[in-house]
Amino acid sequence: EYGARFFKNGAKPGGVLEHPGKLKNPESLRKSWNEMHQGLSNQHRIAILEEGMKYTQIGIPPNDAQFLETRKFQKSEIASIYRVPPHMIADLERATFSNIEHQSIDFVVHTIRPWLVRWEQAIKQKLFMSLEGSQYFAEFLVDGLLRGDTQSRYAAYSVGRQWGWLSANDVLEMENKNPIGEQGDIYLVPMNMVPAEQAKQMPQINAPEPEENQKAPDVEKRNINAARNRSRLAKRYELLFQDAAARVVAREVRDLKRAVKKHLGERDSTDFYNYMDDYYKKAPEWIKKTMLPVFLSLGEAVRDAAAQEAGAEPPETTEWIDGYAERYAAQHASSSSGQVAALLTEARAEGLDPAELVDERLNEWEEKRPGKIASRETVEQCNKIARFVFISAGVTRLMWVAVGSESCPYCQELNGKIVGIQAPFLGASETLESDDGRMRINKPAFTPQLHDGCECQVIPV
């Protein structure tokens, strides 16, 4: 404020007008003087003083009070409050080429890093559930803020490359460049640093065998590993599915409980049947709308992975995924309606309170159904869209791979089975036998999921 007033007055301190006598209206004189001489546009005007008046300057001139120096100091003071190095607010008075880099590192370590740690801890506490906390973590990478000049970076890469803890692809990744293929993953070993007594024991490096003598890559093993990776990829979307499914189920439970209270209070289920019929005719539309974004996200990720397995370009899958979401919504609505209708039939047959039975089932839905949906759909959609991609790529046969199902005898029974890509692995009404019992298949199984908890995958052959 002082600085603003100072420059408003033309960068001059205030003063007084002295009059030898007594003024009748001093305020009028003050006003006319300010109007004539105050402000930038009125500077350097000639003042005429009458009746023996004289002007006397008061205060210390700003250059004597080092006003500009204090203004500079304000910048440093404010920067220090927020722990920001002066050179980052364009105060280069004390900056040199040798200390700016170290000031930048100090900024990252002492200013930015404490906040990043707080964010990382808050993300772990508030965004990850207890089980996730042991698998996932949040971390801010500040390497970009610590990048030195080109010569320093290349010198550091050279040391890491020569001592065997950086590969060519590692260096290219840190420089935001594309890898150069498998040969870029080779790590060098400094041969001159082995113990002296081992030097004579080092094997000679022979020329590679001719290509015809080298073992052909195990394509099936590679595809099985790819299936495991695809399964892990789908698992990452399980929480997203659970969240979307929880919103669908929560809306169902809320609406149906309201209808139960209104229509089943007197054990007359006719109005409730009519409500259910109308409700589940409209439900697929909003169920699809809620679930579609997750289906699209998982579908596109699996599409790219499956296309890479098949060695083909990823096909357009938006229309297919939209149709899949529509079929899912219809099946979900049909399953919900069928479960509630079965409860009403049971209540009528056994003389039970239908409202109590339905309410109990709705509570069970809210507790368990989102998790079941997420577990099932991350496997089913993953396999179905992979099969769609394989068909588009011209694959003719598929193999069933028991991923994560070592303890399941039914999955092990199908493990390694190969069928034509248009044929089911199991037909309707077929059964699987095991020491634990028998599983009857209700509909053709073209892809997993075979049962709850099954994580099997299909691969191209």
Structure commentary:
It is a single chain. This protein is mainly alpha-helical and 461 residues long. Helix content is 54%, strand content 6%. It has helices at 2-8, 26-37, 67-81, 97-127, 150-162, 168-174, 219-235, 238-263, 270-310, 318-350, 354-392, 409-414, and strands at 15-18, 54-57, 397-401, 418-420, 431-434, 437-440, 457-460. The strands form three sheets. It has a three-stranded antiparallel sheet. It has a two-stranded antiparallel ribbon with strand order 1-2. The chain has a two-stranded antiparallel sheet with strand order 5-6.
Sequence of strands across the biggest β-sheet: 4-3-7
Give helix and strand order, one letter per element, not per position.
HEHEHHHHHHHHHEHEEEE
The radius of gyration over CA amounts to 39 Å
Number of strands: 7
Q: The biggest beta sheet, please?
A: 3 strands, antiparallel
Mean pLDDT comes to 79
N-to-C terminal Cα separation, in Å? 79 Å
